[in-house]
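Task: encode each sequence below as structure tokens.

Item 1
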Amino acid sequence: MRHAQDYGRDHAQPPAATHHQEHHVARRQRPDPRQVTSQQPGDNASLAQPRTRSTPTRTKAVKWTDLVNTGTRLDEDTIDRMNDAIERTGLGLQGVWEEAITYYCDQLGIPAKMPEGSEKDPIPRPSAPAADPESLTLITARITPNTRARLIAGCHQEELGGQEFIPAALNAWFDHLDESSRS
């Protein structure tokens, strides 16, 4: 590689321009915002055109949009059992919650099909504050409106808040799974 100081010694002229320098592309000059230009009527070519989407618009509703966020605080043992159930059954968090609430509500005699709109009722608050709220972890699952309505009905029937009912439903279903696997 030659250095700049070598050119003066051996050559009268600097070497030829490199490939990059030969094909210099002129950059588009930005118009001066202070300059006023006139446009002939009907000359829309220079007007900014709205951008069009390159991807088609969605025509079908997303499947999960009807699911309802439902959360509660769970103790470490229930979380461990839930993780074990997720692994054993292959269901995700939503599937485990759906199955557990459905199973527990079936045991309590809660109707399988709830009235439309009943999922919008608030989940009852706990009957008593948690003994040690710092030891609990907030877990949220997206469940179907009907399952949420059954959860609310179960809370009212058992006179429990959601924070008490959901762990009871989960643990009842985990016990059922344990019994089923032993048989």
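Item 2
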Amino acid sequence: MTTGNNKPSTANDNKEQFELFDIDSPCRSICTTNNRGFCVGCLRSRDERFNWNQMTQTQRAEVMALCKRRRARIKQRMADREEVQLDLLLDSNHAPLMDDLFDPLLPGSD
């Protein structure tokens, strides 16, 4: 990518582009914090929420990137937990899986 003066663009050029567009608050009006102090709605820290209006667009973009990484970590932890639960469910050392109560009984399987 090149800039208007035919020079290749740099990371600084990309950061300056944030100044052209307002980054709106990611607030979802949930405003409840988890045990780590992050809002469960937008995943911003207390400081990030309280200082949002004073931040530059570049700082806001950095906060948004942090929130995206936080959300990805949460999703990964949730997937890991589901995988562990499935492993426990399928493990023969644990209670066997029950037949589906809603499946019709097969003839002769009284």
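Check on item 2: The two ends are 72 Å apart (CA to CA). The longest helix spans residues 57-90.
End of task.
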